[in-house]
Structures are given as C-alpha cells and as structure tokens.
Amino acid sequence: MKKLILLFAIMVLSFAFIGCGKDEGEKLYVYNWGEYMDPEVRELFKKETGIEIVYEEFETNEEMYPKIKTNAVQYDLICPSDYMIQKMAGEGLLSEINFDNVPNIKYIDPTLLESSETFDPGNKYSVPYAWGTLGILYNRTMVDGPIDSWGALFDDKYAGNILMIDSVRDAFAVALKYLGYDLNTTSEKELNEAQAILKVQYPLVQAYVVDQVRDKMIGGEAALGVIYSGEAIYTQRENPDLEYVVPKEGSNVWIDSWVIPKNAQNKENAEKFINFLCDPKIALMNFEYITYSTPNTEARNMIEDEAIKNSPIAFPDEETLSRTTAFQYLGEEVEAMYVEKWNDVKSNIE
C-alpha cells in the first residue's frame, strides 16, 4: 500500500512538474485598458505562435499602478499612459525592451517616438500603442449652440446633465486649463483654485465616469461629458447628434504605450506580442475596433474610410495639437497632493 501511495505521489508531482514546464513560455499575462484591443487579435497571436494570452483590464493608471508596484500580480505586458511610464521607469519597475525582437517598430510614426522621449528618454522601455486627446463630447440637441470651452462643464444651466471624468489628473487638467494654468502645475495655490471650482461643480455633475461615458452619451442620458478622443469617434457612429471638441483653453494629448514590468516571467513572449501588435494589418484591426488613433503609419495608410483616415478627431491638425500638453510625472509628494484634493472634491467636503 505504501508503495502504491508513493508511486501515486511521484506521478502527481511528475504531472505537476510537466504542467508547470508547459505553462512557462506558452502564456503571456497582459494588463490593458478596458475594451482596448480586438479580441480576435489575441486569438490570431495564439494561432500564429501557440502562446495563450491571459488578459485582464483596468480603468485608470492609478488602478493599475499599485498592482505592479506591490508585485500583487505578475504581468508580462502592460499599457500605461505617458506620465505613468515616466513614474514606473524612474522607480525601476520596468525592463528595457530588446528591440532586436521588435523589428516592426519601423512602422511606428517617428513623430510619436520623438514625443515619447519626453517621458521615456531613448525609448528604452516603451512602444506607442494608441494616442489621442481629452475633450468634451456634447449632444447638439441638448445644448445652446456649439461648445468650445471647458466653462460649459461649470455652467449651472446644465446641472444634472454633466458627466465628469473619474480620473484625478484628467479632472484637474479640465479645471486647471479652464483657469488658464499648466496642467502639470506643482503650485499648491493653483491646485487649490482648481479644487475649489471642482467642488462648486460637484452638485452639477450627474455622474463621475470613465468607460461609462460612452454609453450614456450615446443613449442621450446627458448633454455633456469629458471623454477621450477615440471614444468620441465610436459614439458619433452610434449617435449622429454628438460632437467632440478640444476646448479653446487647451487640453491633454496622451500616448498609451506597451511596457514590460521588471518582474515579467515571459519577457521574450511579451516582445513577440509587441512586434505582432506593430504589424500594420494587426494595428489596423485594433484601430477599427478601439477607434483610438494609431501610431502606425502604414496602418493609417491602409484605412479605407477617407472620412476616418482624415478625421480631425482621430488625427488632429497642428493647430489643435499646439493647444495640447502631455502629462508629466510630478513626483510622489505632488501626486499625493493631487489625489488628496481629488478625494476631497468627490467627498464634497466643504
């Protein structure tokens, strides 16, 4: 009996060992924004390489960051925004990419790579995936004429019809630009002013949302909402009464890029997937699914719909971009101040 038990134990351990060996190198753990990749792309990658993608989603950079910082979950590939990449690289949380494994980097717009150097000097840690602007989406049938200013979000005539973005840096960017300040300010005085008008805005807001703004605006549940440009393109397809604008005071231009965490267990698989995503045909698939601006020049050339190919939302002109600024990481102390003031706004403390 003891021999049988011993034999059974050996078999169990053997199968467990084989299973672990098989799992390693055949899976890729990816952490990405919600609805930010065509599911068919993941299936095509598995079909081509045999590598299965284990896929999870997040809503904000601030939700994603603690998991990577604390090593709560080991991901092989994540897609943060510019300022968060700057922060994570500075904290030693990212691994340098071996670009010998990413030859399709040649399809990424050199202008976007140059812009990426503002948060990733030398482009050591990141590869652009999507980019765009932050603006206002409004329903023409529910507002008094065209909207061109952040001021509309603070107008009490739209009380109960305003969807505010539930993201600390984006929300403060709205208030800071409306006040004429730099969205990367480190001045507590300017932040206090921004906090004050956000608190005045609080009772006017129907809801603080991120991904949900899309469906609410399509359904005519609100007159105005803060939204990312890619979402705006999708909403216009579903509801022709919707318009998108980058307000005259200026706004944020952002780049979301692929990075590999320092503790990634499948780094080469991650680089294979980055290269796969940079293939123009795959980049086009993702663009058509997520509707966020692609940094892939060849993919843009392949867009058949001329209206989308030349869309001022998807691919804004120089005048619009001249009014936009990328977020920067402001340091732990200042970032904490932003978060504290944002939490105060949402708790509606007087």
Explained architecture:
With 350 residues, the protein is an alpha/beta fold. The chain folds into two domains: 12-131 and 254-317, 3-Layer(aba) Sandwich (D-Maltodextrin-Binding Protein, domain 2), CATH 3.40.190.10; 132-253 and 323-342, Periplasmic binding protein-like II (D-Maltodextrin-Binding Protein, domain 2). Helix content is 43%, strand content 17%. It contains 15 helices and twelve strands. It has helices spanning 2-23, 39-49, 61-69, 82-90, 110-116, 168-178, 188-201, 213-218, 229-238, 267-277, 280-290, 297-301, 306-309, 318-321, 332-347, and strands at 27-33, 52-58, 77-78, 94-95, 127-139, 162-165, 205-209, 224-228, 242-245, 251-258, 260-261, 324-325. Strands 5, 6, 7, 8, 9, 10 and 12 form a seven-stranded mixed beta sheet that branches. Helix 7 (188-201) runs parallel beside helix 15. The longest helix is centred in the N-terminal third of the chain and has 22 residues, at 2-23. The radius of gyration is 22 Å and the shape is globular. Residues 1-24 have low confidence and may be disordered.
